[in-house]
Amino acid sequence: MRASPAALLLGLLAAAGGGCRQAEPAPEPAAAPSPDSTAPDLAGTWTVVGHLIPGTSAMNETEAARWHGRTVRLDLTQAVTEGSHCDRPTYDIRRMARASLLGGEFNLPPGRLPSLDGLDTLTLLAVRCGGAPWTAMGGRLIGIDSARAYAPWDGVFFELARRRDFRALGQEPGWSLEIREGEAITFTYAYGESRAVTPVPVPTTDSATGARVYHAVTEASDLRVVIESRACTDAMSGKPFETTVSVTLNGQAYSGCGGPLR
To answer: What single DSSP character describes residue 60?
Structure first.
């Protein structure tokens, strides 16, 4: 007796089901390694505050000192330093034993960079532009801590201090100020109706008060900004700030409060 078509179909389905194996779930991807919390973050804005020449150098002391006060800015969109600019840089970061880095890469015996003597390992950041090493000053940084670094260049180890962008504001009439280190000072005044933009000059320090002073002169603007480490409270909001700020634009004076631009 021949089986019906329906019975044959049921038999085939049963056989197929018996020979099938359920696919095993794909393995979970391995977790990415956690960042080294002891390594300083070397991106950001830095200012040259000093230098050391621990060995042979292409510069003399006077030439190296001319870099004091200059800015290095490193972020995802650009790398900028005096006389050099790179769009969309990439960064290589390595952690190395101190002796291996200083002795192997820079041929320096122990004790030549005292700020690093207490560190067992060092973080080296190298900037690449268009796939090639960025050879400008600031193209390599060695971290000291979260606020200090060295920039080795032409045999000079420039000492860098982290510099944060700054914002200030004042009332009656309302004004605001932004200092983006390595980029521009933007002063907006007359309740937002007028604006002056200047390059960021090398700041000086007032010997009497310790205030940081920026003085920029362009064809349209003579802008002077004085930042004092003296507590200040905004007259409108009552918000406290850590610094008192005075701005003079083309002879017109403004006063207010300021702090780091978050």
So the answer is: -
Residue 158, classed as helix, strand or coil, is strand
pTM: 0.62
Q: Note if the bond before 173 is cis, omega within 30 degrees.
A: yes
SS3 211: coil
**Total residue length of the chain:** 262
d(CA 84, CA 70): 12
Angle, alpha carbons 24-26-31 (nearest 5°): 145
Write out pLDDT tens, residues 10-51.
343 344 344 434 444 444 443 333 334 444 588 888 989 899
How far is it, in rounded angstroms, from Cα 221 to Cα 184? Answer: 13
Three-state DSSP class for residue 99: helix
Q: Which helix (H) or strand (E) holds 187?
A: strand 184-189
Dihedral sign of CA atoms 196, 202, 203, 207 in order: negative
